[in-house]
Structure prediction request, 646 residues.
Amino acid sequence: MTFRDPSTVRRIAIVGAGVIGSGWAAHFLARGYEVAVQDPDPVAADRFWTFLDAAWPTLEGLGLAPCAARHRVSFSRDIETALEAADFVQECAPDDRELKAELFALMDAVVPPGIVIASSTSGIPMTDIQAKSKHPERMVVGHPFNPPYLIPLVEVVGGRQTAAAAVEWATAFYRLAGKWSLRLDRELLGFVANRLQEALWREVLHMVSAGEATVEQIDAAVVHGPGVRWAIMGPCLTFHLAGGEQGIRHMLQHFEHALLEPWCRMEAPPLTDSLYERMEEGCRQAAADRPMAELIRDRDEALVRVLAILGRLPAPGSSTHLG
Amino acid sequence: MTFRDPSTVRRIAIVGAGVIGSGWAAHFLARGYEVAVQDPDPVAADRFWTFLDAAWPTLEGLGLAPCAARHRVSFSRDIETALEAADFVQECAPDDRELKAELFALMDAVVPPGIVIASSTSGIPMTDIQAKSKHPERMVVGHPFNPPYLIPLVEVVGGRQTAAAAVEWATAFYRLAGKWSLRLDRELLGFVANRLQEALWREVLHMVSAGEATVEQIDAAVVHGPGVRWAIMGPCLTFHLAGGEQGIRHMLQHFEHALLEPWCRMEAPPLTDSLYERMEEGCRQAAADRPMAELIRDRDEALVRVLAILGRLPAPGSSTHLG
Prediction:
């Protein structure tokens, strides 16, 4: 199976114009593509144009691709119209396994086999989505994060019947289209980012449900605490830097007792030697042999810039009552 | 139980000079306090001065409090020296329940009863820490996030024997000292932010342990995906904005199926009517009656600024191959 050079893509079909479909359309439009949006809901067109009106000034502010133009987007209730002459399809229908499998079979019958069709699903395996199609080899997951025109990540993974070439093609195409592609080696329920996000989210729901914390306390705790760090470095490197000169090994040892405590509802895995080695090796690679002091300096510089831009640094005079 | 006005604090003792203790010392020093650092480890002094040399230029860049000066910090191996004349004590010893209870009893015997002693513990309940002390009413948890001189959050909570006035005092004091105090109403293993962080972290360890994803993939997925959002708004408001006009209610309904899927190792709570109501009411309050379009505009503006400052926006010319 081979696919056309991803740099030849001109026209993209967006199937489903909810929050995610509309966001993808805005993104591709700003990157210079011709975009055909489709949604059968009678209220979807109005909603989409309102959405685009709101997002467009932001995208203009970011800087549009040279040939980007707002008028290069069309909207139809009819799926065949949207799919016609599409060089790439991004599906954004509701996250329902049956519905997606039917929809992909329908698109499969209309779109020529050399064209890649991607699903925005948050976690349904492509193996299930492609099950009813005749040309499943060109079907991939391309899972974005809201809003897709600003959050860089897209997780790319195939199903059992997907050709490796299709996953490669989509990974390269999304990069060309200004996204940060994370190619996954294996199909996984919820992929990577949503599994992590879901673990945190379930604890949120448990805490609110049990009256342990309010929505306000939870959101404040994340935004003013670990959330600032996660914009700058992932959870592994964050803890590597919190571990002193010994890095992640010290963190794992020092907080092994916390893994046994019911700090959240999830049971932790045992800290085997092999897990220690994987975490250390991964953090070493992430650190790219830079000394700890340099990593800390870079982190602090980024934190200061982010906090300053968000207006969250204490004013230098806030302790003037002193001295 | 009454305590002196928190604005009269001049001298702070830091007990334990690891990554967190050193970070607290740097923070208080930059905010204009006199700081006495103590650590019995023979290598701790050298490590502390090296740390301060590295952090100080960052703190200068941020803007020091008017009377802040590097020379206003002292270091001793002896705890009595550090505690002498302290107006506030921030304990940062290793996170061991027995050790902390002994240490607090020792400090309790030296520090006058009207002085608040706070623990930096990541999750040990103050009820356990204060158990061996004669004046437990002035003991609180003041849990920071690394690095304490940059991450604003400090979680403030008392134990069973803590006076409400001490929790109030610490909440007010940390605010005066340039931190973002989150006062918790009840003692909770891991407090709020660490429970959430721990849920995510356990899933990280499970994924690495099972070979489902690498450290590199995990960190990249967070940094380029949900992590950018969490610097700007918490998980609840993030999902509220992803739910379209119906907000969090739509998100909860649409992804109820995901709560039943094994997307992560934690079982989700049932989505009862009462949980729906709490989530909706919380998000409504967080939104402060601003219309969804305004919330989205503000979020996008903040995201653009953060991504720009981190150099993660696609270059406008990145799709010049088109058109």
